[in-house]
Amino acid sequence: xxxxxxxxxxxxxxxxxxxxxxxxxxxxxxxxxxxxxxxxxxxxxxxxxxxxxxxxx
Length: 57
Hints:
By secondary structure, this protein is α+β, with helices and mostly antiparallel strands. It has 2 helices and 2 strands, in the order E-H-E-H.
């Protein structure tokens, strides 16, 4: 298993990507989330709270 920041995997792909800490605090969080999500080739797992989901809906 390899792990790292979104910045480390920019331009690379992985069969499974787990994205954590989706909190919208940093000004460029949407761009970072997009980069993280588009690295997955087979499965994407996003770990967040129900509260965060309700705020984004």
